[in-house]
């Protein structure tokens, strides 16, 4: 079938629209989604600042892999230990980053991992204690090259 | 999961009651599902969901991951040496495929 010039031009336009549309809008977590993620982690309990130390670079050159350490002041005994640690993002596409389930057999309330940060933002670390209390620390991170961009 | 390779670094021996440090790494893209390929198609999400560590009859450590965990998920944690035995590390991806790595810890009195 021979395409007329008109059909060809119209087809070209349709093709351009079709290829442009599926590009996903790279959403940023809304404050409501972040609050919901925090509530999910704490089941609505009050979070007090303190006891938690979030170790994260002030300036992260590459948001694709940011070495992050969370340390919690706890004797890690059967009676008094850290049950869980949660990391919550402010401006990633999804607010939850990672959760750790610990217990007295971990021995030391310290975990490290590599996380992705899409933008400069505040990162929140929440620790759940065996007595049901929640403690937190928050740090601001400047991200030079964000994660989630193409080629990353 | 053909390329999935898990590595664990930890001491082979410890005294009873010692806290040992464990580093666990799994080779995985952790594709977040936001990126597009060079044809404009979204690359489907493919992430490791969890790492569970069993030792001496109980789960001593667990990590639940979201797409914001960097590629080749890496974690440093610790455990108390209680008895000689295997530590079993199990990573599970979103399709339910598991990668298992075992390390023997010899505990002396």
Blueprint (SSEs and pairs):
The complex is a heterodimer of chains A (152) and B (109).
Chain A: H1 5-20, H2 31-42, E1 47-49, E2 52-55, E3 59-62, E4 66-72, E5 82-89, E6 96-101, E7 110-115, E8 121-129, E9 134-145
Parallel strand pairs in A: 1-9, 3-9
Antiparallel strand pairs in A: 2-4, 4-7, 5-6, 5-8, 8-9
Chain B: E1 6-9, E2 13-15, E3 19-26, E4 48-55, E5 58-65, E6 74-80, E7 85-93, E8 98-108
Parallel strand pairs in B: 2-8
Antiparallel strand pairs in B: 1-3, 3-6, 4-5, 4-7, 7-8
Q: Any overview of this molecule?
A:
The complex is a heterodimer of chains A (152) and B (109). With 152 residues, chain A is of the alpha+beta class. Chain A contains 2 helices and 9 strands; from the N terminus they run H-H-E-E-E-E-E-E-E-E-E. In chain A, a hairpin with a 4-residue loop joins strand 8 and strand 9. With 109 residues, chain B is mainly β. In chain B, the strands form 2 sheets. In chain B, strands 2-8-7-4-5 form a 5-stranded mixed beta sheet, with no helix packed on it. In chain B, strands 1-3-6 form a 3-stranded antiparallel beta sheet, with no helix packed on it. Chain B is elongated. Chain A binds chain B through residues 19, 22-24, 26, 64-66, 69, 89, 92-94, 96-108, 110-117, 147-148, 150, 152, and chain B through 19, 32, 34-36, 40-42, 55, 58-80, 82.
Brief synopsis:
The complex is a heterodimer of chains A (152) and B (109). Chain A has 152 residues and is an alpha+beta fold.
Low-confidence spans of chain B: pLDDT under 50, at least 5 residues?
none
* Residue windows where pLDDT falls under 50 for at least 5 positions of chain A: 17-24
Whole-Å distance between the termini of chain B?
Answer: 40 Å
pLDDT averaged residue by residue of chain B: 93
How many DSSP E strands of chain A? Answer: 9
Mean pLDDT of chain A: 87
Strand content of chain B: over 45%
In angstroms, what is the radius of gyration of chain B? 16 Å
Task: Give the tags.
heterodimer; A: 152 residues; alpha+beta; six-stranded mixed beta sheet; three-stranded antiparallel beta sheet; 2 helices; 18% helix; B: 109 residues; mainly beta; five-stranded mixed beta sheet; 8 strands
């Amino acid at each position: 079938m021979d395409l007329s010039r008109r059909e060809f031009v119209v087809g070209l336009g349709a093709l351009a629209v079709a290829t442009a549309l599926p590009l996903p809008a790279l959403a940023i977590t809304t404050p409501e989604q972040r609050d919901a993620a925090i509530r999910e982690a704490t089941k609505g309990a009050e979070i007090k600042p303190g006891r938690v130390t979030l170790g994260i670079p002030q300036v992260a050159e590459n948001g694709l892999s940011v070495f992050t350490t969370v340390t919690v002041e706890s004797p890690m005994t059967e009676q008094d230990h850290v049950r869980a640690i949660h990391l919550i993002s402010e401006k990633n596409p999804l607010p939850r980053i990672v959760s750790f389930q610990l217990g007295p057999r971990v021995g030391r309330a310290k975990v490290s991992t590599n996380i992705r940060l899409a933008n400069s933002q505040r990162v929140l670390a929440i620790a759940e204690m065996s007595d049901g209390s929640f403690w937190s620390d928050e740090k601001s991170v400047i991200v030079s090259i964000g994660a989630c961009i193409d080629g990353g | 999961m053909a390329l999935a390779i898990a590595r664990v670094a930890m001491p082979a021996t410890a005294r009873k009651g010692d806290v040992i440090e464990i580093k666990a790494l799994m080779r995985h893209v952790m594709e977040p599902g936001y990126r597009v390929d060079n044809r404009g198609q979204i690359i489907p999400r493919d992430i490791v969901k969890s790492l569970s560590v069993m030792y001496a009859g109980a789960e001593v450590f667990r990590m639940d991951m979201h797409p914001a965990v960097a590629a080749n998920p890496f974690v440093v944690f610790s455990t108390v040496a209680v008895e000689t035995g295997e530590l079993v590390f199990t990573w599970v991806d979103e399709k339910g495929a598991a990668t298992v790595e075992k390390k023997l810890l010899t505990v002396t009195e």
